[in-house]
Amino acid sequence: MDNNEKVIDVFKLIDDNFSLNDLEKDTLMKILQDNSNLDRLSIIIKGIVDYKLDKDSLFAFVLYQLFKTKPDEAENILVNQNEEIKKMVEEFKTIKDINSLTVSEKTDDIRRLFIVMSNDMRVVIIKLLGIYYDISILKNPLSEEQKHFVKQVKEIHIPLSERLGLDKLKQNLYDNVVRLEYPHEYLNLKRTIEKEKIENEKQLQITKRKIQDILKDLNINGEIECRIKHVSSIFNKIHNKQLTLDQIYDILAMRVIVNSVEECYSIMGRIHGIYKPLIGRVKDYIANPKPNGYQSLHTTIIVENQHPMEIQIRTVEMHRDAEYGVYAHWLYKEKKDKKNDFDKRLTWFRQTIENAKSMSDVDFIETLKSDLYAGVIIAQTPKGKVLEFPEGSTVIDFAYAIHSEIGNTCVGAKINGKLKPITSKLHNGDIVEILTNNNSKGPSRDWLKFVKTQSARGKIKSFFKNELKDENIKLGKVMFNQSVQDKGLITTQILNEKYLTQILKRYNMEDMDELYAAIGSGSLTANQVVARFQTLYNSDFKQISKVDNVVHLKRNKDGVLIDGDSGMLVRFAGCCNPIEGDNIIGYISRGKGVAIHRTTCPNLKYLEKERLIDAQWQNKEDATFVANIKIIASKTDNNIAKFTNSITGIKMNIKGFDAKDSGDNFVSSLIIEVKNRNELESIINSIKNLKSVISVYRSEK
Question: φ, ψ for residue 662 (rounded to 5)?
């Protein structure tokens, strides 16, 4: 199929499912013709249709695709769209396409995914549809980057889809994970299922006719769906429960969708009258819903071919929730009772969003994986308020789930009327009364060893961050400024309002003090944040144009820098102190020869462009350079002499050293002699490994 045929197919899919005026049709056709990956676009648009997303979602998504190739054209189209579409396009921009991310950026992408989820679930569903396409086109053997992506889909996106109730999407993602991680087992299992497909489909039709007769006899209007279980679901049961294929009871399944709960129970009774149910396989998820809100009646019966078949019976509303998950409450948000139920079911996501910005990348991902994978238990307060927790949660988790202050002052609990310590684990059905003491000094850091929920962990860490907020801001500011200097920038240049607004939005923070506090507490690294500012700064400050002249750096026997053999005097600029290995540029000064700067030197912006020339390093004799290092270390040992000895014990040529007591930390300035940038970086890494060192930066002076 050529590109034009693909465009027509995608456009027809859109036109058949959305009411478009002539202008909208022309706009969409133009965007489709400009798209370079129509296969991906087609899969995602089909998902948009399947999940009944609206026309605004569709336009926002396709416009975002155009932004990646023709931003100016996309901007012109976006100007004429409504505010809803404009807002969604901005949300899409905050979550990059998975294939464009490095391993380190993927953590940021997941963090932003949860923040966007609180604004618009439609964007998240489309993001997950894109991930489904990205994994579906992968083939073995996989690169290391692709293996990391598959692992992330398994650990984050699949359980996230399950939490959202997006069962079909979850199964499609999982099928591809099994296909890529266990190719031989996947293929054998698929062949076995295909071999029995004709017999299974024949049996499904026999049972379907019998249930249709039951509906007719009961005068019930209902819909019957038949299916054969996904390969990944069968694979999962075989592996996790050590079963054989014959021991899996729901390879064949049928779903009966009716109008009322009463009809559900009536139909189940009649089915059991003609088919024998398996003992222990009758489950009532209507009276006792699953933790994600799923409701249905399940029964497994033995059918004519003597194989088991699972029957699910549910109402139209239950089916809608099962198919569209949490998003169903957006589709039908006009109902007030639905809004309340929706709010209840989003509790876990809101807790995740609340804590996402205050956790380090490692803590965030590990806690997220723990919360997504954990089984769920239900406990309640003495007044009957029901709360949901991952397995292994404790009294501390329960206390913080009620309120931060309750958690901070918790000293124990009564579980089912009996006194229990705060580290006691919760069990299904427990009635928990939290005991508090207003004179309590607050949580202990040891509590972090016992809590299971991300919410409790975040609130405990927030307590300590708030206690030390001023110190964290102060330390974070020092670390930020030193990182700025290390990159050859000036703080006042990068901290302009334009860049700051974008950075604060990216990290979901209110002001610069909050950002400093996050750096000071270790939630973010100074280098990570400054790199974001530098990217924005560099996009505005394009590389300065240079003339064709080139100065080659070499030392003569007297140690004077010359341009090859030309005799041109060359000196290093004191504002940025370049060393061999740095990217450099020369500036022809009046009467003082050529000054060599690092290409990142902020002072280049103020120099005359026509006087700039290329500069290159050449092999030199035993030349050395002076470099400046700043070190911040905690006063863990409370002994500045001991800290000084550990620094001077590292093999390096020290020209100057100064260590000062600065409140809770030691701040040191180190002047060393090095041969090149590699040697400097090796020394910095050695210092980083010393006990109590918080940060090490190369500084200008």
Answer: -125, 75
Contact 64, 56 (CB under 8 A): no
pTM of the model: 0.53
**In a shared domain, residues 68 and 32:** yes
Residue pLDDT, tens place only, 320-359: 877 766 555 545 444 444 444 445 455 555 556 555 555 6
Under the phi-then-psi rule, with left for phi > 0, alpha for psi from -120 to 50, and beta for the rest, what region is 580? beta
Report whether the peptide linkage leading into residue 602 is cis, meaning its omega lies within 30 degrees of zero: no
Low-confidence residues in the chain, pLDDT < 70 = 1, 96-119, 241, 246-250, 291-292, 324-376, 488, 540-568, 590-592, 619-622, 636-643, 662-664, 700-701
Instruction: Write out the E strands in 351-396.
Output: 376-380, 386-390
Is 700:576 a contact under the CB 8 Å cutoff? yes
Nearest to 297 by CA among 320, 263, 273: 263
Whether residue 86 lies inside any domain: the answer is yes
> What string of H, E and C letters represents the secondary structure of 575-635?
CCCCCECECEEEEECCCCCEEEEECCCHHHHHCCHHHEEEEEECCCCCCCEEEEEEEEEEC
Domain encompassing residue 487: 469-540
- Domain boundary (569, 588, 617) is at 617
148-187 confidence digits (pLDDT tens): 889 888 888 888 887 777 888 888 999 999 999 999 999 9
- Residue 286 included in any domain: yes
